[in-house]
DNA sequence: TGGGGTTAT
DNA sequence: ATAACCC
């Protein structure tokens, strides 16, 4: 498995949009937070998720661009996933800036070519975790070395075609590939040989750094006295199962050993489209309606371009509360009436006002508008996306549904051409 | 802490 | 519908 992780993705996209920002310290701002920044800014002490106030104190020359509209990042993100999809169908997205690629089949093909040509000279591309020596008589090592060459080709293609740099990690599963990709940081790549697996996983100083063990599970583990990966490895399974449930207990304990049998699941098109806005205060029905009317046109446009029809709509809000400041969200969802669904394929304007009405009804299910309220976030989400009833030859659906044939060059580059595999065209 | 996403229960 | 996870 290869894990591809773009460097400070939003900042890179902004530097492509405006090349003058290239060699200057740059931060991407959402509300009063610098969500990410380029490496020029990091040299000067700027960190991800730093407040704008702290960032400007640290670095008055810092240039800030607003990154609240994710459109440019989302578009570039899918270009990266689609590019990787030219090499191999098994590409799974994680957020906007990471992808897993299962290259097992490509590696097998190259290994066979190598063995048939009697060639025993294979050279690793990039780093080997722990500087572990490679044994070319070990086919597992050879496979990972071939993986390193493919990862290099991925990164080169992403740079040549999209102008983006990033890291890659190659290992036997998703967990380990992700952990190893971060070991040499901007614009480098690393492979993990199985003999160094325990060193990598045990190098994590806190269990929350294990992908899959989040905030809540970490808190519960801490009450059990489990603080690091070694503690979790050694903890009695039976006790863990009673505390967290069999499913979570078995999964995270396997993770603590670096074991992860989850497959690379092709992400395909998105399962949902959402748009949200946060703010200091929103306390009247009229304001809520205005927020919804701000969010909807953008969303309807995205759905229109996607070509599928959503069958469910959801409204999410966050109410102000001084205690438990984060994560007090509530939502209400409902099916979209069939007569409205039909209109999604056409002009978005005819959907707008009936949809606002539906969303305001959902709002009133959550909030008694006769009582005072104080919202700090409104979000609208369309989900349960279904393909249009694709009909005959002339319809839009017919053309949209046609799978575009692989452009070919990248795929042949990676798989090599030998006995009559190349197509006539 | 923002503005997104996913899956499991 | 919520809760957990990911970025």
UniProtKB/TrEMBL annotation:
Domain of life from the UniProt record: Eukaryota
Keyword Mitochondrion: no
Keyword Acyltransferase recorded: no
Example GO molecular function: damaged DNA binding
UmuC domain residues: 1-214
Keywords carried by this UniProt record: DNA synthesis, Transferase
Region Disordered: start-end pairs: 258-277
One GO term of the biological process aspect: DNA repair
Family to which the UniProt record says this protein belongs: Belongs to the DNA polymerase type-Y family.
Official protein name in the record: DNA polymerase iota
Organism per entry: Buteo japonicus
């Amino acid at each position: 498995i290869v894990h591809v992780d773009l460097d400070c993705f939003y900042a890179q996209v902004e530097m492509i949009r405006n090349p003058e920002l290239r060699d200057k310290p740059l931060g991407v701002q959402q509300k009063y937070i610098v969500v990410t920044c380029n490496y020029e800014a990091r040299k000067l002490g700027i960190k991800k998720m730093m407040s704008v106030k702290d960032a400007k104190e640290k670095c008055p020359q810092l240039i800030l661009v607003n990154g609240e509209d994710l459109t440019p990042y989302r578009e570039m993100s899918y270009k990266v996933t689609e590019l990787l999809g030219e090499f191999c169908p098994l590409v799974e997205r994680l957020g906007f800036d990471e992808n897993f690629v299962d290259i097992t089949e490509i590696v097998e093909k190259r290994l066979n070519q190598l063995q048939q040509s009697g060639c025993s000279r294979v050279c690793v591309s990039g780093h080997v975790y722990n500087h572990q020596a490679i044994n070319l008589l070990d086919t597992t090592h050879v496979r990972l070395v071939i993986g390193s060459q493919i990862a290099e080709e991925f990164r080169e293609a992403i740079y040549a075609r999209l102008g983006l740099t990033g890291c890659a990690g190659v290992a036997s599963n998703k967990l380990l590939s992700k952990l190893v990709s971060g070991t040499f940081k901007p614009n480098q790549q690393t492979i993990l040989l199985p003999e160094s697996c325990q060193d990598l996983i045990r190098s994590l100083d806190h269990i929350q750094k294990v992908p899959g063990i989040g905030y809540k599970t970490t808190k519960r583990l801490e009450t059990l006295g489990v603080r690091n990966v070694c503690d979790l490895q050694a903890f009695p399974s039976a006790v863990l199962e009673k505390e967290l449930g069999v499913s979570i207990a078995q999964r995270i304990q396997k993770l603590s050993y670096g074991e992860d049998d989850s497959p690379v699941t092709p992400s395909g098109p998105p399962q949902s489209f959402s748009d949200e806005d946060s703010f200091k205060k929103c306390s009247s029905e009229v304001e809520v309606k205005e927020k919804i009317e701000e969010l909807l046109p953008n969303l309807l446009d995205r759905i229109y371009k996607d070509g599928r029809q959503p069958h469910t709509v959801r409204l999410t809000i966050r109410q102000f509360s001084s205690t438990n400041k984060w994560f007090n969200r509530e939502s209400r969802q409902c099916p979209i009436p069939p007569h409205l669904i039909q209109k999604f394929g056409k002009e978005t304007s005819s959907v707008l006002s009936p949809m606002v009405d539906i969303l305001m009804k959902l709002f009133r299910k959550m909030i008694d508008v006769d009582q005072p309220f104080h919202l700090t976030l409104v979000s609208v989400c369309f989900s349960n996306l279904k393909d249009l009833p694709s009909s005959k030859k002339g319809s839009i659906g017919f053309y949209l549904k046609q799978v575009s044939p692989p452009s070919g060059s990248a795929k042949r580059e990676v798989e090599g051409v030998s006995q009559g595999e190349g197509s006539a065209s």
